[in-house]
């Protein structure tokens, strides 16, 4: 994976919107058509966070992506579309249910997607030793977060995104979001979010840029964009900076 040392910042995301404007517009058109073709599919990613995920995957060009949690495959299709546009990389998705296998377009899946049904805590560890990008949107209870924070994060060297952290300005107590934010602070790992409730400046600036570039047409109606993005390195602990030099996460 190229450029893995980069932290995710608002300036980087803005530059990626400009670099990949036409590709993003085409990806959004394709996702909109995909959603129309599957009207009962639950679409979990809001537009801005889906676009950022797509843009970061285009930028980082990961060879191995692991997705923990997919439900109906909306995030899966966004990830696969980025890999297809890169012309390289593969995705392995782990979920307790197999609904995504019924909705992910065959043209995107062929040759680049593997689905494994079951508990991520038993399936995922064997997949993660050489993962480049880890996408997490599964069990949002604290117990699940404690598993991957203690058993997964210290062993990987990857870009990471975690969904459903900032539906509010701070995560609810006893949730995955609270555990992840606490870990980020403990390890001094900078992160980025465009969540409207947490990072109003970033959310507003990105929407202004999207209007300027003409890529603001709605695909999904959600507006929370609660996902967070960060970069971690192997064998981090409380005494080391996990993400490298500290940066202002929303600027």
Automatic annotation (TrEMBL):
One biological process term in Gene Ontology: methylation
One Pfam family from the record: Methyltransf_24
Record's keyword terms, sorted: Methyltransferase, Transferase
E.C. code: 2.1.1.-
Domain of life where this protein originates: Bacteria
GO molecular-function terms, A-Z: methyltransferase activity
Protein name, per record: Class I SAM-dependent methyltransferase
